[in-house]
Amino acid sequence: MELHCLSGSLSLPYCYLSGCKSYRIYAELLAIPVRSSRLPLLSDAMPAPTHLFPLIRNCEISRICSTVCYCHHKHLCCFSSHFAHGHFRYAPQKRFAALYRPKENFNHFIHARDYASTPQRFYLTPPQVNSILKANEYSFKVPEFDGKNVSSVLGFDSNQLPANAPIEDRRSAATCLQTRGMLLGVFDGHAGCACAQAVSERLFYYIAVSLLPHETLLEIENAVESGRALLPILQWHKHPNDYFSKEASKLYFNSLRTYWQELIDLNSGETTDVKEALINAFKRLDNDISLEAQVGDPNSFLNYLVLRVAFSGATACVAHVDGVDLHVANTGDSRAMLGVQEEDGSWSAVNLSYDHNAQNEREVERVKTEHPKSEEKSLVKQDRLLGLLMPFRAFGDVKFKWSIELQKRVVESGPDQLNDNEYTKFIPPNYHTPPYLTAEPEVIHHKLRPQDKFLVLATDGLWETMHRQDVARIVGEYLTGVHHQQPIAVGGYKVTLGQMHGLLTERRARISSVFEDQNAATHLIRHAVGNNEFGTVDHERLSKMLSLPEELARMYRDDITIIVVQFNSHVIGACQNEEL
Amino acid sequence: GSRQLPGVGILPLRSPSSVHACAQVKRALRYQERLAAGTTRFCAGIVSTARHVSIELKMADYSNKLYQQLEQETGVQTGYMKTGSISLAQTQDRLISLKRIASSLNVMGIPCEIITPKQVAQLHPLINIHDLVGAMYVPEDALVSSANVSLALATAASRNGVQIHERTSVSHVLIQKGRVTGVETDRGKIQCQYFVNCAGQVGLLKLSPSLVPVKDRWRSLSLLNSLPTSFLSSAAIVDLDGRIYIRNWQGGILSGGFEKNPKPLFTEGRNQLEIQNLQEDWDHFEPLLSALLRRMPDLEALQIMQLVNCPESFTPDMRCIMGESPTVRGYFVLAGMNSAGISYGGGAGKYLAEWMVNGYPSENVWPLDLKRFGTLQSSRTFLRHRVMEVMPLMCDLKVPRWDFQTGRQLRTSPLYDRLDAQGARWMEKHGFERVKYFVPPGKDLLDLDQSKTFYKPDWFDIVGSEVKCCKEAVCVIDMSSFTKFEISSTGDQALESLQYLFSNDLDVPVGHVVHTGMLNEKGGYENDCSIARLSKRSFFMISPTDQQVHCWAWLKNRLPNDSNLTMEDVTWKYTALNLIGPRAVDVLSELSYAPITPEHFPSLFCKEMSVGYANGIRVMSITHTGEPGFMLYIPIEYALHVYNEVMNMGQKYGIRNAGYYALRSLRIEKFFAFWGQDLDAFTTPMECGREFQVKLDKGMQFVGQEALLEQKQNGVYKRFTMFILEDHDTDMDLWPWWGEPIFRNGRYVGKTTSSAYSYTLERHVCLGFVHHFDEKTGEELVVTTDFINQGEYEIDIAGQRFQAKAKLYPFSSLFTHRRRKDEVELSGYQRE
Q1: Which of A478, B412, B731, B775 is deepest in the core (most CB within 10 A)?
Q2: Beta strands in B463-604 (DSSP E)
Q3: ipTM at complex level
Q4: Where is the PPM-type phosphatase domain (chain A) (predicted)?
């Protein structure tokens, strides 16, 4: 077994293409100790990789490993490894999923062979931890006029913590300038970040345009036509790290212009319904992504870009807040959650989105009704769409949307990079009646009440590690500065003084961690990554998780992107009274 | 009589002596809940005599001796173990504080030692000694089981005929003509003459008018596991810097402490009776736990048994409350033990029993007397704030001249803002803000925390210059806090009553001021006051600030119930300004256009005059310090005007503001005794050289006359003496405070009662009482002048002895000489 595995790892190019079954077995074997609890994973598995990696790197294998890393950065070229066992990003147990990747499997296997090397302890100092956690944090406060904030939104905090390198999550926030309201969204890319990047840049324009009244659309079109300055549509609230692609802007703009021209032509004369606008915008953008890839672009860079966008995928969870009207449009398995403060001051969570994945029975039902009965068994396998994809709705992912012929034609006529990529060539099994995937969102409308204090939009990286109830409490307590720590009771347990002391120190650190963070999203990430079994931030754990080598981080966690929107209860209360 | 304890705080105050007392007046104990159901059950049970206040120390000592014999007397196991106690010091200042206690324990015959960290380790191997600078070991301190002690006391009480009713609640106390006549309970009425409320916060809020204890929380932590057997008999550890105590407890350890951030607890009228242990709150206990593990790291492996969290009563000044209600006779209170109930319980019970039976306890309990508080100090908000401050202070360093920071600015003079703007620093007495000293512009003092010192304080020079100004020019001190009563009658009733109640002869011409004691039957000072005869039938009486409640109650209870005789508290009506200094005469005469020369206005006179535009200012030629000067009693609406006039006019005479620290220095170097500090109910005028204020032959009987006559014939057993420290370095040595033991020819003879630095003598002056204990029997003998004069004296400050010169009379001649010389200098040269 030892030999077999080592050879498997060494013959990497081979397993990219086929040799996959053996890995799965190992993965499951190795998973057993891991599955039992989260802590042993850290304490046992951690030292081995950090310790052993340098050793291996020095050997011949290092070349292979670095190839893998390099490929990974290229988004498209390492898909084969993901798809060999299903979509890596959405593997059934994501902690094992990482093991599918040969290099990690290799490390683990060596570890499984029991290297009794003393664990090499390396901790980040609290300031180091903070600088990592805060690297991407962003806060926006809605400006006040005459000391009054008339918006129902006080502001928002957002942050991202990468696990993939580069991160595949994206976030966006903007204020609509030609209509009222604010847009906020999180986007979780898979098979690379190209699609998530494109959606994060473009989706809000599509939504804003969908919301615009006819006159404004005309005005904008006339301005473009006559080369006059355009009315600004959106005011973006961006972190410096959130970039927009300059090269594609012209292409994107043209697609958008086509969209509004069509809207002008259609001119239904009806007032725009937000729900409809959101659905239309989502569908239109996905359609444009698909079309752009089919048409291609004379510029080879752009041509490759639009293909990368179309062949990768992204989920989107977008909130539109206008006064007391909150709409959440969701495609995929990111989630929106409302934090509600009960009369007794405690916090509860209200879901404002449904996950589009195999855990959602309605969603499984929907997919099944859209395809012939003969495909019923192959549609959802191992909780994945066609046995491959975890989210049941997504942008991009044309492999699940286009006909086989179209896919082949585009890949063949496409650039060499695309042609050489095994993933793009790979057709999902049992692919009979495309499309299997849609970007159409489910929209939930919620009338904000004074007790609705905040909205959390986050990618599944957060929801995997934290229950929404805990999220509501942690954010609620952070925002109000009031802490309802569950009192500790010894009753009946055998606890030593030392243990109790350790526990209490941690709990105190938890309180103080609140003061460390100026950003609710950062605070939430601190908890998501650093929480121990007592639900308190454990610096040691936090430090370990954040000091994981790039290649390993994805084993223990997913990219996390969070936006916390804080509502203005006074304005909401006043609006409510007016409506009454 | 009947004693009741509804609800929680139960004190083991049934000491045998009190039980004997009880037996005479058949009494019934009433409990709303079960005996010892309150905090008593979880009391640490450390009987520790390491107390700062001497009366508390005596109570603890008595309790210890009582509990020791209790098991034998009653057959109830009390868990009494004489393990000793070790108080640890992590800082030099803490060690000084412990040394001060050690000195007073030693002179009381309680064995006590200051030991090194190494010795600590030998006594108690589990202790981490690395951060210690020393410790105090009291080998006779003991551990008891609090609940069992209560039970044993109850058993003893029952045997002596006391009935105990458990689970009985008192609905109200029956009062007729200001006297307790009985109590109404849910099981019927009980006739009684005396009623003692020991119910702690619940009972006090519910049943009585002007009381001030507050509940707060403290924690006990019990752990159980195998411990080295040596620990079982090892001493209790008190780590004040770590805010914790540790004792062995049923084979394990019990530890608790006083957290820095207490949670206040008010029952808000709810009948929260059987004390449910408030929910365990580990997070709140965390700092104490850290301190515990730091002190005994080996405890880490011990298993936790229980965290108990129970309420505890605290008082606004960290001393317990006992005594008779000022408004209802026969209504007694004993409460607010500040979590030292088990240490004080026995002694407190004894004193209270004596109080009821004999009319007064056998020791001076004024520091604990209920009447030291006014109604203002029982405001809920005041208590809430003050108790939050007090509880952390329990473990803080007790340094001289400490002022509470909360519950301030309650009673103020109308000049408060004016004085504050001129740099006044304030202290509080009986709720009244008084100036300590004035910080000159441009001078900075240390922060509050840094200013805590046992050595020379940072205000030394400031007060020095104020004193100098009092001596050479003129100073103004706002003394509005003094208690002021007016007693008048239609006929001679006022004079007759006062002549009976006061020792000096008050039948003086109108306009005279008389210094006199208000004595009790034993001749002791209940009050020391100045009385001005305003007219034939009305008197104006000035007493110390904290006499407001006590003196009122004393007089009310003794003045005849005659509608033609009225007494009024006019404290709030007058602002009092004290002009001190040789130039006071000049200022006043310029302001009043009246001759103020000694011929026209001799010492101890009172005149109504106009000052500035203001009429009806009562001017008295007294100063309370022995310096020349005047007291101005100004109706409050004129206060600002008169103050401004005085300051303006005084400028050319070098007038400035001064505070109480200067006053204190002046009065102590002049050998003036102050009531509440030097004088108490156990001190007679004969013992402090004030025979001249007693007119034994004034032609009528007065309270205390017999006792004084006897003393005059037989001599006194203690003598108020002034000590000038000889080899004390003001800059380098610890400063005396009060309570320092006095040694005569190497033998303990008494304690100091107050002390101050005399800027004139450039020496420290301590005032105190000298006793004469028989060398063999320890019996108290008569103290003669020769005895005082023919001794070599030493004052013990925190274990270090300083030579002192004893004097029975002030340096009057020296002062006059010096002053005359100064005047010569002043007139001779233009001085700065």
Answers
A1: A478
A2: 475-478, 483-489, 513-519, 525-535, 538-543, 565-569, 574-580
A3: 0.74
A4: 153-567
